[in-house]
UniProtKB/TrEMBL annotation:
Name under which the protein is recorded: Uncharacterized protein
Entry keyword annotation includes Cell membrane: no
Alphabetized UniProt keyword annotations: Membrane, Transmembrane, Transmembrane helix
Compositional bias ranges of the Low complexity kind: 1-15
């Protein structure tokens, strides 16, 4: 009798099981997501650094060779047209793939980069109408620096967006670093004569190195 009574008392003392704390579970889930690498959350992003580095960097260097040797302007324009279209398609497809439905609202990649492209078109059109008497070398340097500025802003915004999408900090650093050096180069290019002639190749080399180093770090060091 005493054993039964004891067992009954133990069951009574245990009481009902509490419901799980949903807020605590959400916080734990957010912490786990914050620790995720960019490749875990968005497969293929590491490879994009390598692909874009090779395509954009190589095209910039080739364009500088054509410019320095005074070759056909049509060839120069064709290279940049293909470059812009290819880079745009790659980034747009990546943005579309990353705009997934999530529990909490996050900024849209397509809206952000679409806005940047629209702004670049407007700024280029405005500047074109007031550069009639400016030497062609300076015009080219200015328009290229304008493009680098928009691209650098895009990388800085990408780093911020990745934070909103819960990507760990070290995987965002390459975006911030790319944005900073692009803005610095864009600022000096129209004013420094050496950069007016060779800034395209310098940009291409830096972009290529940045892409390769970032791919290496994300794949072999920070994975």
């Amino acid at each position: 009798m005493s054993d039964d009574a004891t067992g009954g008392d133990s069951g009574a003392d245990a009481g009902p099981i509490d419901d799980p704390d949903l807020d605590a579970l959400r916080r734990d889930l957010d912490q786990i997501k914050t620790a995720m690498g960019i490749e875990d959350r968005y497969p293929g992003q590491r490879r994009l650094w390598l692909v874009n580095g090779g395509v954009v960097g190589g095209a910039a260097i080739l364009a500088n060779v054509i410019f320095a040797r005074s070759l056909s302007n049509a060839l120069y324009i064709a290279i940049w047209f293909v470059l812009v279209v290819l880079a745009g398609v790659l980034q747009w497809r990546s943005a579309a793939a990353n705009d997934t439905d999530e529990r909490e609202p996050t900024p849209s990649w397509r809206v952000v980069f679409g806005t940047l492209i629209a702004g670049w078109v407007v700024l280029t059109a405005i500047a074109s109408s007031i550069f009639g008497d400016v030497p062609g070398v300076v015009q080219g340097a200015y328009f290229f620096s304008l493009s680098i500025t928009v691209l650098g802003m895009g990388y800085l915004l990408a780093g911020t967006l990745l934070r909103a999408h819960s990507i760990r900090a070290r995987d965002r650093y390459p975006y911030y670093a790319a944005g900073v050096w692009m803005l610095v180069l864009a600022f000096f290019m129209p004013f420094v004569e050496f950069l007016q002639y060779f800034g395209y190749a310098i940009f291409g080399g830096l972009f290529l190195v940045h892409g390769v180093v970032t791919y290496y770090l994300l794949t072999y060091r920070w994975n």
